[in-house]
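From the shared-data thread, chain only:
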Amino acid sequence: MLFRSPVCGSATRKSEDEAVTRCTAGLFCPAQRKQALLHFAGRRAIDIEGLGEKIVDQLVDNALVKTPVDLFQLDVPTLAALERMGDKAATNLVNAIDHARETTLPRFIYALGIRNVGESTARDLALHFRDVQGLMAADEMALQQVTDVGPIVAQSVAAFFGEAHNREVIAGLLDAGIRFAPMAAPVAPAPGAAGKTFVLTGTLPTLT
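Structure, as tokens:
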């Protein structure tokens, strides 16, 4: 039986190893909004310097920001009107937000705050699928083909991208100018070397 969040109406899921049921609309649900924004803007994620808890509290409480997309619509006058902000601080934050449009695919995936997806898994997903569209289209079976991605992580990722609200936010972020640095092509192992043992003989003057 499908249960929905009483806050935002999105589907909820309960993992076999957990006692609680969780909402899948991480980028949209009002109950998760502040923490989702702080995670999104964190140093290891999109990295918006200067966007701290007190500013996020004001932005959400004043209904200025509902999803990460709204961050990229903020301007200096809006931010300068916040408590303990001024033109200089507002300008610095707008510049930091603009700078954050240039990121990498692993950082972006991590910034989405998908349950059970840390930095390492985000990097593995990025290297495997190479773009957001491919990742969003993957089902649980395809996700389990990724290095170190098991059934629990695959279920979390598929559930996240299965929510229309989350897909809309991602589309909005791309429309807002989020762009990714080119990823290096995967390095193939040298032919004929895998599984072999090499033995070196001889001596060196400084080693026994």
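The chain has eleven helices and four strands.
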